[in-house]
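Continuing the series of single-chain predictions for the mutant panel. This is the parent chain; the variants come on the following pages.
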Amino acid sequence: MPEETVAPTQSKHVARIIGKVVGLVIVIGAVVVAAAAIWEYDYRPETDDATLRANFVGIAPHASGHIVELDAKDNQLVHEGDLLFEVDPRPYEHAVASAKAQLVLAHKQVAAAESALKVAEASIARAEAQCATAEVTVQRAQAEFKDADDHLKRLEPLLTKEFATTDQVETARTRQLIAADSVEEAQKSLTAAIAAVEQAKAERIRAEDDIGQEGDVNGHIAAAEAQLSEAELNLEYCHVRAPFTGRIVNFNISLGEFARAGVDVFTLVDTRTWYVVANFRETQLKYIQEGAPAEIYLQFKGGKRFQGSVVGLAWAVVPEDGTSAIGLPSVPRNLDWVRLAQRFPVRIQVQNPDDSFRVGASAVVTITGSTQPMTPK
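Parent structure:
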């Protein structure tokens, strides 16, 4: 065979071998890449459906009134205890003054009632003494009447036998009548004394009610003190202060606006703790455990990454098909014509936040540890 024919044949054979090797390498590479992708999906769950969050509260005054001092402004960073604004305190100052006056009157009322109680107790003692004296007088009068009646009864039989004179009998009868009158007068005095005792006791009960004492607590004074404390508390509520360190948002008020109790004036974001709420597919949740480390990429930070840890996995979201579930988080699916895995929010606390964080910023989250499937409880 000529050398010219052998060389092309060998070249084609080598090319076929190289092609097969390259094809095999491509297939193996594809398998390796697919396996790596599957492993990465299962054991390093990642989602770009995540947003930066922080807790926040609406700042509402406890007292209604016009805003007379406004020390806050939009997007301002305030610290716990800082004065945010002040409601007109004048009506509440008048309420404090009125409550103090009512407390003074309550003390005077109680003092007067205590004096009346002492007078009533003295009246009771005096009336009881008079009652005791009247009882003795009744007993003496009854004894004198009995003696006079017995004497008359002894004389009347003697008159017919002329052992007693008519004058003696008349004198005895007169004495009996006088003794009977004395008994009647003594009974009246005793009845009056008993009535005086009862009236004095009624006055004592009325005085005790007016004092309003129950154990160690005086009702009148306690009520006045409570009213004063409430008035002072309402006055203190005129000064609205920051409950924690945070940043003011949704600021749409100005000096002189009328603030109503319980109605939000603006919002305060708690910048002490930041979270990322990442929506993971339900098929990935078994590889995510509470406390697992996570890597957070914030788009607005230009590639800077932050570390975090999982603090909670949602156990409920709003179901589909119009089921009523008020109060549950809603995570809509992307497509209606394909059955997609439901997403559940996972809360991840950022470990090293900075002052530039903003609520609602987009994030990409990767769970980087504790990747063993969770065992059902």
